[in-house]
Design a protein that fits this description.
alpha+beta, 2 domains, nine-stranded antiparallel beta sheet, two-stranded antiparallel ribbon, 25% helix, globular, binds protoporphyrin IX containing FE
Amino acid sequence: MIDPTEVQSLVLHPHAAARLDLAFLHCPTRQDLVRLLGTAAATVTPAAQARSDRPSVNLGVTGAGIDLLDVGRRARAALPAAFLDGMRLAATRNGDVGPSAPETWVPPFAPGDPPVHAVVLAVGPRPGVPAADAPDWGGLAGSVDHLSTSAARWTGTSRPGGVEPFGFRDGISSPTIEGSGRPVRPGAGVWDGEALRWRAVRAGEALLGHVDESGAVAGHPDAAHLERDGSYLVVRRLEQDVEGFRGACASWAEGVEGLDADDVADRIVGRRRDGTVLGQRPGEEPANDFLYRDGGPQGRAVPPSSHIRRSHPRDDVEHADRIVPRHQLFRRGIPYADEADGTEGLLFLALCADLRRQFELVQSHWLQDGNRFGLGAETDPLTGQCPVGGGPRPASITGADGGRVRTPSLPSFVTTRGGEYVLLPSRTALRTMAARGPRP
Ligand code: HEM
């Protein structure tokens, strides 16, 4: 059973928010962090109180925060190394190399920046409900003002039609968590090949202390007081080269019979800008109730190399019924546009119970390594990185006749500008962390 009075709102609510503000906090002393966690325990928005017409506030703790807190040797050893080490040390695994390397990251993750111990997330009301100019930090406002600097805040804002900066509708496919009280929409979960229906993903794929798709309880018993009813959150600032993407699609289309630049872009993503898949008529409600191997015309029309097919292959890998449910991501991202430096992109946010098995596997294997899908050295044409040192980035799409159309090399369109792994603890865990009190 999920207790929605314990779990923070972002975990259970696949928000479509007008605005998302992140304040990254560095705590000069352990006492500052303990005080912050005590305030958070009393003021974060539990899922039970989340309302789409009102802002909600969540708080996450980083691995550096856990170390500052000093949770004890046994509990620390039970927490995942990827979380404790942080995203910077995962750079090679995640393909954050070359222009995406941590040496190029922006504050608060630029080289030499002080460690971030906690992140406050203010999730604005739903699109259409006017969002205030300033974030609503609720009861955490005092702590945020006291601890954060202006350089350490990121703001995401939704765009009309829910599109991301390349112009594609986002937020269509997101798995339902079992016990979350949300109905399972076809396509939004796990395909049960025996019952021939979609079902919700077991809670333990998103929430620690709950049974996961393998039948085990997610998390480590020695860290249960910190992890239970919590979830790991991946935060990444992904800058998008919108002109570069359009230009590359136009050049590729020049050499391909029957496709224009928009068709190429659609085939790279796997959906059209309006969210429909190629097997649908443009303008229809975007379909999500499809499989790739045995799923009829809609799924078969999605190019095997496309972003949506590689990031969530549904039935398109061997033993898919046992493999794919173990690599689900619960996305909560939102676009950003930075007026100060003219950049734009995605504040990619995704929840999971196991950072390495879920986020890192999708990021490094499914999106970066084509061999899993019989595509050789091809990376995901949308988010893949050029090899370090400037070698080619081969890619393919499906042509107008359904055949594979290759290009020897595509530029990269997405660059990592910073990020971190964060634990969104339950309210009880926040209280437990705060109750350990300042050490002498
Ligand atoms: C700037 C970078 C990115 C852009 C512009 C982007 C864009 C999109 C778009 C337009 C969709 C289709 C809409 C939808 O199904 O909700 C999508 C789906 C998805 N993306 Fe991304 N994405 C990006 C990065 C990533 C990364 C880094 C990951 C994982 C590590 C990822 C995982 C997914 C998943 C799991 C889906 C759902 C696929 C499905 O269930 O059919 N995306 N993305």
